[in-house]
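#struct-help
A.M.: can someone run this one for me? Single chain, 204 residues.
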Amino acid sequence: MGENTGEEVRLDALVSRLHSEGVNKGKAEAEKILDDARQEAEQILQAAQTEADARIRSAEAEAAKLEQSATASVQQAARDTMLALTQNVRGLFMKAFREQTGDVLNDVEFLRELIMQLVQVWAGGEAVTVAVSPEMGQKLLALADTGVQNLLAEGVEIRLNRSITNGFRIRKDGDAVAYDVSDATVTESFSAYLNPQLTKLLQL
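D.P.: on it. Structure tokens below:
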């Protein structure tokens, strides 16, 4: 009976040992599985964070491009608007100026004084031909004042030209070039001065 007891003790010890080794092995495997799971989870989180950072940077870069594009579009629209405004205002100025110039150049007394001063200052005693519209020619001759008579006496020839609507053309005899004093030429000369002044005005 004592022998059986010894064998039972050895069997219990073996069972206990196997149980202990199995438990320890199970714990080790469980810990390894947990470690592997933690590492895999960390890798997944790191990869997800890297991808998220990349997407954020890409979104920020795209937003910056869109902002630059929007800013450039707004600036271009502002320039186009200012250019259109300048052209419209210039057109209104030039239209009004040309109309006023045409009215002034159709004033017979003003035209007479202007022709007289040009002949005295510019012609320098040389023979001069002045071309005016038929209507203005009749008005000038109808004045019959000393100024007009003096012009005619000094060799100024007044010719009628149906192509002239207002103002006059003046030319020294022998010169091929005639100087056109009309609403169109005066307005064109004024335009060269108006453009920079108008630009400054609109920039205020």
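A.M.: thanks! The longest helix spans residues 2-105.
D.P.: also worth noting: Residues 106-202 form a domain with the hypothetical protein PF0899 fold fold (CATH 3.30.2320.30).
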